[in-house]
Design goal:
The chain is of the alpha/beta class and 270 residues long. It has a single domain, classed as Vaccinia Virus protein VP39 (Rossmann fold). 39% of the residues lie in helices and 23% in strands. A seven-stranded mixed beta sheet has the order 3-2-1-4-5-7-6, with helices on both faces. α7 links the parallel β4 and β5. The radius of gyration is 19 Å and the shape is globular. It starts with a helix and ends with a strand. The relative contact order is 0.18.
């Protein structure tokens, strides 16, 4: 185990190399199950300042390019950059267009010039970054004065029903960990960017059975990527235990899966 893996294990956060592999494998199936991702991304688009007229925008963690194409339509006379850590996602998105350039890169070390972008848009990607302080520092470096960072991420409380149900079965780590909302607040306040808005909003999806939720997480590439997760196949008895425990959460609409989404709009003022 190398130093990076040890550090991530201590922090309880996924190794981004494994994140990249997982999302690359999920590129072809991602959009078919991305209801939450589309809802959150459109909500984030609606929160962008209406008077923006960027010369260049960046879709950070662009995935299949769905929102690159949305941004390309909104800012039709601008140059668009789509950047993702997963090569498989870029290969899937490139033929569909939306951006002029598709770039393999890491949000914590952007391969872009300073003062080169007017808008950085990032929807449901930055929760995979262990160094969110570094993400904000890079965004500040790459943005032009007056530029805007708009992000949606996930915080603690996400999939708490699934986490607690697994906890009742075997006490092991089966659900991805995310940082606390107050950590987002502190890091954004310390970033040197002006915080125009920052808040946490729950999004709840409902499923007929647990297997639909776990299938969707796998198809998204967002299944359990935590250090310390159980290795190998999950036994039948444990699956039955999970199903029984999750039934305690059933509502008239089905089994709820809660995502705690953080929306942030930050501006580089100087």
């Amino acid at each position: 185990m190398n130093d990076l893996s040890i550090a991530l294990l201590a922090a309880g956060l996924p190794d981004k190399r494994q994140v990249a592999v997982s999302f690359s494998r999920a590129a072809a199936s991602y959009d078919s199950v991305a209801e939450l991702q589309r809802a959150v991304g459109h909500e984030l688009l609606a929160r962008l300042p209406q008077d923006l007229n960027p010369q260049r925008w960046l879709d950070l963690g662009s995935g299949t390019g769905y929102f690159s194409r949305e941004l390309g339509q909104r800012y039709a006379h601008s140059q668009g950059l789509a950047l993702d850590i997963a090569q498989g996602m870029l290969a899937y998105a490139r033929p569909l267009g939306g951006a002029q350039h598709f770039i393999a890169g890491d949000a914590e070390s952007l391969p872009l010039q300073s003062n080169s972008c007017d808008v950085i848009f990032s929807s449901l990607a930055l929760q995979w970054c262990a160094d969110f302080r570094g993400v904000l520092s890079e965004a500040r470096r790459v943005l032009k004065p007056g530029g805007v960072l708009a992000f949606a991420s996930l915080c603690v409380g996400t999939l708490h029903e699934l986490r607690d149900s697994w906890q009742a079965v075997d006490g092991q780590v089966h659900v991805n960990r995310f940082r606390e909302f107050h950590a987002y607040q502190q890091l954004c306040a310390d970033s040197g960017l002006q915080v125009l808005s920052l808040h946490n909003q729950p999004h709840v999806l409902h499923y007929p059975q647990v297997r639909q939720l776990t299938h969707e997480l796998k198809a998204l590439g967002a299944h359990n990527l935590n250090p310390g997760r159980p290795e190998g196949l999950t036994g039948r008895a444990r699956i039955q235990g999970l199903v029984a425990a999750y039934e305690a959460y059933r509502q008239p609409l089905g089994l709820p899966a809660t995502y705690q989404v953080v929306y942030g709009i930050l501006e580089k003022t100087r």
